[in-house]
Amino acid sequence: MVTAVVVGSGPNGLAGAVRLAQHGVEVTVLEASDRLGGGARTTEKLVAGTLHDECSAVHPTAVLSPFLRNLGLERYGLRWRHPEVMLAHPLDDGTAAVMRGTAEETAAGLPGEDGERWLKAFGPLAAHVESAADDLLGSLLRWPSHPVHLARFGLRAAPPAALMRRWWRSPATQSLFLGVAAHVMHDLHAPMTSSVAAMLIAAGHRFGWPVAEGGSQAITDALTALLRDLGGKTVTGTKVESSSDLPDADVVLLDTAPSAAARILGDRLPPRVRRAYGRWRHGPAAFKVDFAVRGGVPWSNAGCGAAGTVHLGGGPDEVLRTAREVHRGTMPAAPFVLVGQQYLADPSRSAGDVHPVWAYAHVPRGHAGDATAAIVDQIERFAPGFGERIVAHSAKDPAELERGNPNYVGGNILTGANDPLQLVFRPRLTPHSYDTGVPGAYLCSAATPPGAGVHGMGGYHAAGRALATLGTRAGRTTTS
Question: Which Pfam families is this protein grouped with (predicted)?
Fold first, then answer.
C-alpha cells in the first residue's frame, strides 16, 4: 500500500489528500490546530447563533475550480448561496457601482459608455473562463490547454491596474474595477496587478460570488467527509516542526509557507531550493474585525444593502493611493476595507435581527496598531449610524492572524506577496512548481500556483506530481 502524509488541512491540503485517496493511496492529514480547515473555518461567537467566517468568506474560485466542482460535495452537505448583488463599491456622493450576475446585467447599470466597455473587457473572459480554468488555476510555466483563451485573459491581466482602470470613463466604474484589483494586495501601479481582478470578475460573471451555507467551514467539512469515505484519516493537534515529526510515508504534501517547508525538510532540501524558499516574500497584511450588528448595516446606497461583498475605498485615486501606502509600509488614515454580508445569501448565520458582518482592512505587514476604529470609521463613512448598531465585535491583528494560521506570515493572508515575479514564479523558477527537490515531498500551499483562494488546485496539482512520480496509471495521464 502506498502511503502519504499531508501537513496542513487547509483547502489545498485536503484537496491534495482527496486526490491521492481517489487513486488508492493511504492518506493521513496532520493539522497543528485543534480544528481542520486552515482559512476555511467558521466560528459561532459574539452572539449565540451568529456564524462568523474566520478568514475566507466568499468563493468565486471554489465554484470555478475544476477539481472541487466535480467532486460532488453537495452529497456531503455543501450548498452554495448567492446574494442578490455580488459586489458594490460606494462613493462619497451616495452613489455606488455594483457588479451583478452577468456581464450584461452589470454593464446595464454602469454610466455612459462604461457599460459597453465593461462588456467588451469581461464578456468574452466570462464566456470562456470555464474552458480556461485548468490553465488559470495552474502553473503559468507550461504549455496551456487553451492558448487562445489564456492569451485573451493575458491581455486583461498583464497591465497595471492603475493603467487598466483608464479603459473606463467614470470614477464609479474605475473604482469598481480597482476595488476588485485590490485583492492582489500589492501596489496597483505594478505590472500584472489586473490579473486577480480579471479572474475574479470573469469567474463571478460565469459562476457568481457565492457563500457556503452555514459558513466556509462547510467546505472543509464536505472535503473531510469525502476523504474519510475514501479511507483517509485526519489528526488534529499535531504540530510538525521537522521531518522527524513525520511518520514514514511514500509521499509528503506540505500545505505550508515555503519557510515552514524548509524548516520541516531541513538538510534534505537541496541548497538551490533552500535559497529560493528563503527569498520568498510576504506582502501586506489584513486586520480583521467581526461584528454582530442589530438590523444590519445602514448603507446610504441601497445597492450596498443587497451586496454580499462591499469594497470601501472611495474613488479611484484613493484606492490607488492607499494600496501604494500599505505596500510601502505606511498605515493609511482611511484604509481599504472589505465588508462581507454573507447572511444576506445565507440567513442561517444570523440570530434573529442580529447579523454577522465580516470585515478586514489592508494594513502593512506586521502592523502592530489597532485598526478597529479605522474600519468602523470607513463603514460609517458610507453607512452613517453603523456604530450605534454594533452589539459586539472581535478584532484580530496581523500577529493574531499568524498565530491562528502560521501560513499567514506577518498577517499576510495570501501566503506570499503578489509582485510580478511571484505571480509567475511560484514559489521559485521551475516548471515543476510543486516539487521541493526532496524525493516524494511536494509543496501545495497558496505559495504555489495558482495562489490564494479556496479552490484546492495547489493540492490537486501537487498530488498529480506525486502520482506521476509514483508511476501510477493516474499519474501517467496527469498533465500537472
Answer: NAD_binding_8
Rg (the chain; Cα; Å): 21
Are 201 and 325 within one domain? yes
Has this prediction a pTM greater than 0.90? yes
Kindly state the cell numbers that stand for 361: 482592512
- Distance separating alpha carbons of residues 281 and 421, to the nearest angstrom: 10
Both 168 and 299 in one domain: the answer is: yes
- Check which CATH number belongs to the domain holding 46 and give it: 3.50.50.60
Q: How far apart are CA 239 and CA 32, in angstroms?
A: 4
Domain containing 95 equals 82-210+283-404
Contact between residue 297 and residue 379 where contact means Cβ atoms under 8 Å apart = yes
414, with CB counted inside 10 A (0-12, 13-18, 19+), is buried
List for the chain the helix, strand, coil content (%; round to 5). Answer: 45, 15, 40
How far apart (Å, rounded) are the C-alpha atoms in residues 380 and 348? 26
For residue 480, which amino acid is it? S
From 447, 2, 464, 1, select the one nearest 250 (Cα to Cα): 2
- Per residue of the chain (480 residues), what is the pLDDT tens digit? 899 999 999 999 999 999 999 999 999 999 999 999 999 999 998 999 999 999 999 999 999 999 999 999 999 999 999 999 999 999 999 999 999 999 999 999 999 999 999 999 999 999 988 888 887 788 766 666 767 667 777 888 889 999 999 999 999 999 999 999 999 999 999 999 999 999 999 999 999 999 999 999 999 999 999 999 999 999 999 999 999 999 999 999 999 999 999 999 999 999 999 999 999 999 999 999 999 999 999 999 999 999 999 999 999 999 999 999 999 999 999 999 999 999 999 999 999 999 999 999 999 999 999 999 999 999 999 999 999 999 999 999 999 999 999 999 999 999 999 999 998 889 999 989 999 999 999 999 999 999 999 999 999 999 999 999 998 434 343 334
Nearest alpha-carbon partner for 29 in 3, 65, 66, 53:
3
Report DSSP letters for 218-250, one per residue.
HHHHHHHHHHHHTT-EEE-S----SGGGSPP-S
Give a yes or no: residue 410 inside a domain: no
- Residue ending a domain, among 404, 432, 451, is 404
Candidates 358, 405, 337; CA nearest to 39 is 405
